[in-house]
TrEMBL record:
Gene name, Swiss-Prot/TrEMBL: atpF
Tagged with keyword Nuclease: no
Additional information: In plastids the F-type ATPase is also known as CF(1)CF(0).
Coiled coil start-end: 64-98
Protein name: ATP synthase subunit b, chloroplastic
Function noted in UniProt: Component of the F(0) channel, it forms part of the peripheral stalk, linking F(1) to F(0).
Length: 184
């Protein structure tokens, strides 16, 4: 037994325990490191994981409760809609029993009102077209007048020199003088 105990205590059989240094055996060190990292993750991550799962559970439960409330509201709305449908069906039966004369009368009134509206719209359309035509004609007239005026001014400026200008002024003065003598 002394041999067995001595072999565990003795450093002769454990060559790696003789001195401190770097262990270059990658496989042995990776297994040790991975087991340490996994142990730390499990130890410290268990609480975080439990919190995440509890939060998720609460959200799922609240979603289920909301869905149940929505389902109850939908059932109530469905019942109201069914009640309203029964009421409308009874009113429809009542209208059928009373006859279609009121419906026909309303139909004729609606047709007449629609015809009147269409006639008014047609008149409005005609007035609008006439107004737009007049406006377009006036715009064209203004453009033609402006172009003619610019053309005439261009022609006068290109043809008019100082001598011609002096002769036109003299002729106009003589015409004015002759008009003055006639009026006196």
């Amino acid at each position: 037994m002394k041999n067995v105990t001595y072999s565990f205590v003795s450093f002769e059989h454990w060559p790696f325990a003789e001195s401190f240094g770097f262990n270059t055996d990658i496989l042995a060190t990776n297994l040790i490191n991975l087991s340490i990292v996994l142990g730390v993750l499990i130890f410290f991550g268990k609480g975080v994981l439990n919190d995440l799962l509890d939060n998720r559970k609460q959200r799922i439960l609240s979603t289920i409760q909301n869905s149940e409330e929505l389902r109850k509201g939908a059932i109530e709305q469905l019942e109201k809609a069914r009640t309203r449908l029964r009421k409308v069906e009874m009113e429809a039966d009542e209208y059928r029993i009373n006859g279609y004369s009121e419906i026909e009368r309303e139909k004729v009134n609606l047709i007449n009102a629609t015809c009147d509206s269409l006639e008014r719209l047609e008149n409005y359309k005609k007035e609008t077209l006439l107004f737009e035509q007049q406006r377009a004609i006036n715009q064209v007239r203004q453009r033609v007048f402006q172009q003619a005026l610019h053309g005439a001014l261009g022609t006068l400026n290109s043809c008019l020199n100082s001598d011609l200008h002096f002769r036109i002024i003299s002729a106009n003065i003589h015409i004015l003088a002759a008009m003055e003598e006639i009026t006196d």
